[in-house]
Design a protein that fits this description.
alpha+beta
Length: 279
């Protein structure tokens, strides 16, 4: 058990430019500043300068950014008071055994809390190519009131997030075709725990306990594991069967004889569900 009151917490790893993945430590109750898009040390890169080149999605994925007036917490690891959340503490304990699982949970949370991540998930289909310029054009068409610079900055934040974290390569959201063109692949190796977390998060958002696999593949769906990870139906159902047969069953999946229903437990939340599966 990690002593959160006295010890530093290894929260996540991130890649700086083309270098190796490096540890990033979260100190409890410490004001944090971390600049994902630069290798320069903090003393050579001021908060003021960082404010001119915001990269909040990337920054929050790592451990949250503290500035004088804002603490983004889209990944739900840090709260508005710069304190580690219950989810953050749990993920820190899980990190050594399964770091990819941590990034899956972060991507799910960003899908609900970050406009640009949600837009990407809902507008870039599986196995399709995309470019930064193409995304900017699409967003401008859908949100004509947004300033061009605002859209450019948001897309830039997204691209840096995908390039400089395992979300792009390991979670298959960004495969490079050339310098400016990428493909969004299917993440069919989604962990059972992350799938369950995603389903519970989706259900809570809709205030439901019963749903169908086909709901997630509907054109009207704006969330859930299919939008978040582009997971194929065969992989989705295979992982559901694994969850359904788990000794600590967190859901009931009826997938035979043409059925595709999923029933969740009323006593569980997205967090308590993964705590059961990871114990």
């Amino acid at each position: 058990m990690v002593d959160y009151e006295n010890e530093d917490i290894l929260l996540l790893k991130t890649q700086i430019k083309n270098g190796p993945y490096g540890d990033r430590w979260l100190k409890r109750n410490e004001q944090l500043l971390y600049y994902l898009q630069t290798e320069r040390k903090e003393e050579n890169y001021s908060t003021k300068n960082f404010g001119n080149f915001p990269n909040l999605v990337c920054s929050d994925i790592i451990e949250g950014i503290t500035t004088e007036d804002k603490i983004p917490n889209d990944a739900e690891i840090i709260d508005a008071n710069n304190k580690i959340t219950e989810l953050g503490e749990f993920l820190a304990e899980c990190y050594t055994d399964n770091p990819d699982f941590i990034w899956e949970i972060i991507w799910i949370n960003l899908s609900y809390n970050s406009f640009i991540v949600n837009w990407f998930n809902c507008n870039i289909p599986p196995m399709s190519q995309y470019t930064a310029k193409g995304m900017e054009v699409l967003i401008q068409e859908q949100f004509s009131s947004y300033k061009e610079k605002t859209i450019h900055n948001a897309v830039y934040q997204l691209q840096r997030t995908l390039k400089e974290s395992p979300i792009g390569a390991t979670l298959c959201q960004m495969e490079s075709i050339d310098k400016s063109t990428f493909v969004r692949q299917r993440h069919d190796n989604l962990s059972p725990e992350a799938l369950a977390y995603s389903i519970y998060k989706y259900a809570k958002n809709k205030n439901i306990l019963s749903l169908r696999v086909s709901d997630f593949y509907s054109a009207e769906s704006l969330g859930g594991p299919v939008k978040e990870f582009a997971i194929s139906k065969s992989a989705f159902e295979s992982t559901l069967r694994s969850l359904n047969s788990n000794n600590d069953r967190v859901l009931v999946a009826e997938l035979n004889m043409g059925l595709d229903s999923i029933t969740l437990r009323e006593d569980l939340t997205a967090l308590s569900c993964i705590k059961i599966l990871k114990k």
